[in-house]
Amino acid sequence: MQKRKKILLVNDRYFTSEFMINQLEWLSRYNLDFFTFSDRPDDSQENFQKRMLGMEVHGPSEELAPPGLINIIKDINILVVHFTVIPSSVIFAAKNLEFIGILRGGWENIDLQAANSRKIPVSNSPGRSADAVADFTIGLMICESKNIVRSSIALRNGLWGKQYINSNYCYNLKGQTVGLIGFGQVGSKVAKKLSGFEVNILVYDSFVPKEIIINAGCQPVELDYLLQNSDFVSLHYRYSEETKNILGSREISLMKSTAYLINTAREGLVDSRALYRALKNRKIGGAALDVFNVEPLSSNSPFLQLENITLTPHLAGHSLNPMITPFEILGKEIDRFLKNEPLKFVKNENDI
Distance between CA 295 and CA 191 in Å, rounded? Predict the structure, then answer.
């Protein structure tokens, strides 16, 4: 009889052990033994965000493995994690490890080089919240340009306001030019969802072949051209040393004085001080931000004093769907692994 395999589900502040087991229990038909491990489920949002951003920039060496994980990992065959860091010390301690699955679109929390050296496949869950973030991005474009949030706040304060800071450039989306910086899982969905609005779409993405952008009905361009010609500039890059502050003072100065900047990706993609100065001095039309360098946003943040900005508390990826979707994506990948079928989402050290 075939030896039973052991699968370890590592929960954190987002997924409970019970939820993870419920989503993947259908895999028990392969005679799997399920085990669970908790990685700081009570961690604060601020500390969690700090750890996550650190790993996205510096990789799994940014922090130590959770205490106790090395002891339980020794006999595990399949490891499933969310944001938990899996450095080389864990991978080399897991003598029987055959597969690592990640319940997110990124893979920066895994030491891919160590996993590759042991020929352990590592698969992620691409696009798990892409629809949610794409919907939210377009929602922010409309909210900021059409004064939806500002007018709602004014009405609650007894003001029947008709004139706002952008009244001289409050246009419909039709005929406008949207510039997408990044054309991955989210950026490409934003483009597809915007097609019904009859906009022109420019795309800058140094990692995506131009043919893919053209086939999606968009125009591949250089970053400066995109900034100079877009009415909306929307960020969809991953955050790394290469993309850090991709929009600095010089880049922001290239934008139209009536253009809106939308950021539902990562705060570190934009020089926050430069953006604040541009908004305060009306060098650009407005902005909508869902991500910040410190979360929750400080009550002393200068952005709170601006009229030409819409702020939301890192909500873009939040909906019921992204809670279940990664388990569907990764569950099928584990199913393929257990059937010895080709894997779809394997990462290697060249992706670092």
Answer: 28
In terms of Cβ atoms closer than 10 Å to its own Cβ (0-12, 13-18, 19+), residue 200 is middle
Q: What is the pLDDT of residue 54?
A: 78
pLDDT at 56: 75
What CA–CA distances, in Å, run from 78 to 18, 34, 91, 348? 18, 10, 12, 17
The CA distance from 167 to 181, in Å, is: 27
Query: What amino acid positions are annotated as catalytic residues?
Result: 266, 295, 314
> Which CATH number characterizes residue 64's domain?
3.40.50.720
Residues listed for the chain:
352
Cα-based angle 343, 345, 349 (whole degrees, multiple of 5): 105
Which residue has 């597809």 as its token pair? 192
- CA 305 to each of CA 105, 269, 281, 301, 319: distance values in angstroms, whole numbers, following the listed order: 34, 22, 13, 8, 29
Give how many domains the chain has, as a whole number: 2
Name the residue range of residue 67's domain.
5-128+319-351
Residue-wise pLDDT tens digits, 39-95: 998 888 778 877 877 787 778 887 888 989 999 999 999 999 999 999 999 999 999
pTM: 0.80
Give the model confidence (pLDDT) of 166-217 as tens digits. 999 999 999 999 999 999 999 999 999 999 999 999 999 999 999 999 999 9
